Amino acid sequence: MITCYSIAEYSKAIASFSDDTLIGFVPTMGALHKGHISLVQRARDKSQIVVVSIFVNPTQFNSHKDLESYPRNLAQDATLLERAGTDILFAPSVEEMYPNPDSRVFELGGLDNTGEGRRRPGHFNGVAQIVTKLFDIIKPKYAFFGEKDFQQLSIIKYITEKQGYPVNIIPCPTLREDEGLAMSSRNLLLTNEHREAAPEIYRSLLNAATLAKKGTHSPRDIAEITKKEIEKHPLLKVEYVEPLDSLTMKEVDMWEDAADIQLCVALFAGEVRLIDNIKIEQNVA
């Protein structure tokens, strides 16, 4: 595995391959887990070269404290990536990626008006800034993103098409711990008590999906029920539960308002903010 700390080093490394080499790209912020490695494996299957970036992007954080506390372990991550068959690791500094402030403001098609976008102003613009920068540098054919960040995935698909990047965005299923908690780098920050409480999130989402199939409650009602279920646990504080149109990211009140609905949740387990989602649908006879 070749490790590049600068754009120049990456350009030199990639120059040894032919121009038509299929590059599979997995952008990460490090603190890697099995979910990230599953993306690398998917890229390995579909591409000729696998490139993984590790960069904690400051422009997508709303809190300086959150940015500073984000877990980092580049040496450990590099070992995992090499074992997984990564060809190139791109691990630039903030100064390398932002020699000057990035003042670009992206039009996101209204996909940022709900969920994470409503609670984290500017977050998705920061995501758009770094993803387009990385696409310009890496020049991938395929880019792999996890479905845990469902709204982010929708926005990345949108900006990729709108900006005219010849990149195929490949969604990858959420990987979970044995008890159901969605794998996340932030899980490393959980206390033992909050780690034990956190699987309640997925259990409540599964109950929501089951309730939806019965057809006796509206999406809005299911969201309210899910919020109350999660907050029965005293260590979990819900920020939102929203049923969103999978295509437009608009809130959905009634089943007939959208063809596909994703129930999205964000909450605090102590000081750690976690997100998750699940598809909900009625039984169609």
Q: What does this protein look like?
A:
- The protein has 285 residues and is an alpha/beta fold.
- It folds into two domains: 2-172, HUPs (Rossmann fold, 3-Layer(aba) Sandwich), CATH 3.40.50.620; 185-279, Pantoate--beta-alanine Ligase, Chain: A,domain 2 (2-Layer Sandwich), CATH 3.30.1300.
- Helix content is 38%, strand content 20%.
- It is built from eleven helices and nine strands.
- The chain has helices at residues 7-14, 34-46, 64-69, 74-83, 94-97, 115-119, 123-138, 150-162, 192-197, 200-214, 219-230, and strands at residues 2-4, 23-28, 49-54, 88-90, 142-146, 168-172, 236-245, 261-269, 272-280.
- The strands form two sheets. It has a six-stranded parallel sheet with strand order 1-4-3-2-5-6, sandwiched between helices. The protein has a three-stranded antiparallel sheet with strand order 7-8-9.
- Helix 7 (123-138) crosses helix 8 and helix 10 (200-214) packs antiparallel against helix 11 (219-230).
- It is globular, with a radius of gyration of 19 Å.
- The termini are far apart.
- The mean pLDDT is 96.
